[in-house]
Amino acid sequence: MPASFSCDGGVEMSRPNERRLTGTTALVTGASQGLGRAVALAYAREGADLVLVARRPEPLERVRQEAEALGARAVVVPADVGDPDDVERLAATALTAFQRVDVLVNNASELGPTPMPYLLDTDPDALRRVLDVNLLGPFLLTRALLGPMLAAGRGSVINVSSDAGVVGYPGWGAYGVSKAALDQMTRIWASELDGSGVRVNAVDPGDMATAMHAAALPDDDPATLARPEDRTEVFVRLAEKAPTGAPLGGSPDPSGAAVGSGQRLEAAGFAPAKA
Which among 7, 110, 117 has a CA at the least distance from the CA of 51? Predict the structure, then answer.
């Protein structure tokens, strides 16, 4: 049965021992729809406690209800990760609610103006907004939540990337620049945190039937695209607890948990776990 959540930590719930994320607290940004919602619900099914973040409170509340119906404890924090004050408030709320965040999924993304302009025609303020959400927000939120992870000797930061950060697609300038920078920031965080037990990885989910994809490429047929729900397995594996001091640049271990750091993983390569 779902349980209501008390920020003083007064709710106790029993969960099946076989769930892979029992005892894990995960914060997911952009959790109100698309991939963020799918990852949050996948985490809920595996027993994680959740901090759900997005700008719009109404759809976020619906995801909270879905997560609680799966037996998860969840809090919602309406926030704009492109606003440093919101990021500070978000981190404080998450740590007050659960004392720590074990897994951070930096999923919230800003596409920029549509139809998508060439760089020559991109307004500097639009570029700045994309960078604020897609790069500065993950940097600030990671930095704000690292302290308890380092103290515990373990944690997982997952940055959602895109092939637009690797290939120079015309018209994808602002978004592509932000994702390329996010990939490089992932590698630097991983290098600097090597040996700490905190892993930092990037995941490219590929083309999916989401509102963002429809805005960017409105002529694409959603029926030909992957569902966000089919791209969540890698996020679950990266959220699983790895041995303290997991090595930099490792690969998925025999137990199914991707324990390395500094990787750029393609979600399509991770099949859902068998029941």
Answer: 7
In this structure, are residues 31 and 55 in contact, taking their beta carbons and an 8 Å threshold?
no
Sequence length of the chain is 275
Task: Name the β-bridge partners of 74.
Answer: 50
Per-residue pLDDT tens for 115-129? Answer: 999 999 999 999 999
Strand partners, 76: 52
Number of Cβ within 10 Å of residue 136's Cβ equals: 19
What is the set of active-site residues? Answer: 175
Entry pTM: 0.87
Confirm if 111 and 212 have CB atoms less than 8 A apart. Answer: yes
State the SS3 of 126-186.
Answer: HHHHHHHHHHHHHHHHHHHHHHHHHHHCCEEEEEECCHHHCCCCCCCHHHHHHHHHHHHHH
Domain locations in the chain as residue ranges:
25-269
How many Å from the N-terminal Cα to the C-terminal Cα in the chain? 22
Residue 103, classed as helix, strand or coil, is: strand
Q: How far is residue 31's CA from residue 100's CA, in Å, rounded to a whole number? A: 19
Write out the CATH class of domain 25-269. Answer: alpha beta
Which tens digit of pLDDT belongs to each residue from 170-218?
999 999 999 999 999 999 999 999 999 999 999 999 888 788 888 887 8
Rounded CA separation 210/103 (Å): 23
